[in-house]
Specification:
This protein is α/β, with parallel strands linked by helices. The chain is about 40% helix and about 15% strand. The chain is built from 17 helices and 18 strands. β13, α11 and β14 form a beta-alpha-beta unit. It is globular, with a radius of gyration of 23 Å.
Length: about 500
């Protein structure tokens, strides 16, 4: 069996971290390798899938967009002014959401993984300052929220005047090594790395202004390795504030952003200090490399899936009502959730799935769900699939209903290799992958029998063999949230002392 793309990538970066001094790639206090590593993944993934890197906008648009952002933010927020926050305020905690990990509950958008923490702090009489990245495409918000795209725009402008040199030992050797393996990595060009590091540093400067006003004891981030996440982690480290990455998708010991080797003795400034995990096994995978450091610059914390806090209480009833309001009163023999991923080069698979759905029994209902980060222009990648219509086909509501509202009612989850398989396993719902590449990120799930790879030609037969969906509470060990937060506050004190101590050496 040939190695998957994920396996090849992880093996490659492990070799680079072992044989070259990438851990010393720096611009001032900005550790560059974590940024380059993620960009290398995208370079390789685009080539692997045959997808082209998104084209740059015109020069005029690149100039005009930053200047217009405050005004477009105001225009988009005009119907949600109560939650439009323009000035940071003093708070016990700070949350930076990724702008896409949001759930529509009722008629407002909640941060999927931060909401339970915010509510718990509120019960203790403590405030949380909330920021969201992205273009404000999901409004109204559940809570007062600061548009973090202002930080991003500032960084893009300020980096142009940056002249701080970068140190990239073994850089030419790394590029030659990649080329020898047939890998072109434009993101690792010296000029590209200089721009990337400058933008992260400038964004961290902007976050510093916010941190000085908010003065949080704890700082949470969702999807730390994308967008503004690295700059947020850097700003927190500069100020001795504990940054905590909230797990947002299954890791299975093979996620590109959580598997590291040969980490510098003081860790990486652009990685969070704490990785909050859903399971003890995920925490153990992180501790495998984090505990090798001479001081706890990075560590794991098993805090449970924060979206599922109190699932068997009022939240469960609320989500069940959402599902039933969408599903209506008609009963179906099978409820099938199709999790889409806008991966290039998969049109034939989606077209075949469309034919399968059309020929499948009429008493099977198909919930076709877009990926949360999908853009409208990516719909063409799915061929006829999103054009299917019928009483047993649900598309738009399936894309906005939270997974915990859908999964308790599903017979099976079908995808190329979607991370939703992790959540499905929590609810006891089997996952069928249509791509052999799923063995890379989800090999452990497959080995444990929680998921399997199914030939599309056998999909209907395999679904027909399945029994009724499980009932009851999801199978997940949830540590008491309040205790976990108190533990984090103690870690935050120790971390601040560690940062201050490192500067006095």
């Amino acid at each position: 069996m040939s190695a998957t793309f994920q396996d090849r990538y992880l093996a490659l970066v492990a070799e680079i971290e072992r044989d070259f001094r990438v851990g010393q790639w720096q611009r001032g206090d900005v550790d560059i390798w974590p940024l380059a590593r993620m960009d290398l993944f995208l370079d390789m993934h685009w080539r692997h899938t045959g997808q082209s890197k998104p084209a740059s906008s015109s020069l005029l648009r690149r100039i005009a967009a930053p200047l217009a952002t405050p005004f477009t933010n105001a225009w988009k927020s005009r119907h949600d002014l109560n939650n439009w926050t323009v000035r940071p305020f003093r708070a016990h905690a700070l949350l930076l959401g990724d702008g896409v990990s949001l759930d529509l509950i009722g008629d407002v958008w909640h941060d999927r993984f931060g909401e339970s923490l915010i509510a718990e702090f509120e019960r203790r009489g403590l405030r949380t300052f909330v920021m969201q990245a992205g273009g404000l495409s999901r409004l109204p918000w559940r809570r007062p929220t600061f548009a973090a795209n202002l930080v991003d725009i500032w960084a893009r402008i300020a980096r142009r005047a940056d002249s701080v040199p970068v140190s990239l030992p073994d850089h030419e050797d790394v590029i030659a090594y990649l080329r020898k393996k047939g890998i072109e990595a434009p993101s690792l060009a010296r000029v590209a790395l200089m721009r990337r590091a400058a933008a992260v540093s400038k964004a961290a400067d902007a976050f510093a202004l916010i941190l000085r006003r908010v003065r949080p004891r704890l700082a949470f981030v969702v999807t730390y390795y994308a967008g503004l996440g690295p700059a947020f982690a850097l700003a927190c480290r500069r100020h001795g504030i504990l940054s905590v990455d909230l797990q947002h998708c299954p890791q299975d010991g093979a996620h590109k952003a959580y598997v590291w080797s040969n980490v510098p003795k003081e860790g990486y400034s652009t990685l969070p200090a704490v990785f909050w995990t859903w399971s003890k096994s995920d925490a153990d995978h992180i501790d495998h490399w984090a505990t090798l450091l001479p001081a706890p610059w990075h560590r794991s914390l098993h805090g449970g899936n924060t979206q599922l806090v109190n699932f068997c209480g009022a939240a469960s009833d609320m989500w069940d009502k959402q599902f039933r309001a969408t599903a209506g009163g008609q009963a179906f023999e099978r409820e099938i959730l199709v999790a889409l991923q806008p991966i290039a080069g998969q049109l034939a698979v989606w077209e075949e799935l469309a034919r399968i759905i059309e020929a499948a029994p009429g008493d099977w209902r198909w919930w076709i769900r877009r990926h949360p980060s999908s853009r409208a222009e990516q719909d063409a990648a799915f061929g006829r699939l999103l054009a299917l219509r019928g009483d047993n086909i649900v598309i738009e509501p399936a894309s906005t209903l939270p997974l915990p509202a859908l999964l308790p009612h599903m017979t099976v989850l079908v995808s190329l290799m979607s991370g939703a398989a992790g959540e499905a396993a929590i609810f006891g719902v089997p996952a069928f992958f249509l791509s052999e590449e799923a063995r890379g990120p989800f090999g452990d799930h497959i080995a444990r029998g929680r998921a399997r790879i199914v030939d599309p030609e056998q999909l209907v037969a395999e679904i027909g063999k399945l029994g009724d969906p499980p009932l009851g509470c999801p199978d997940i060990a949830q540590p008491p949230l309040n205790e976990t937060l108190h533990r984090l506050e103690k870690i935050a004190d120790d971390y601040r002392a560690l940062v201050i101590g490192s500067r006095s050496v």
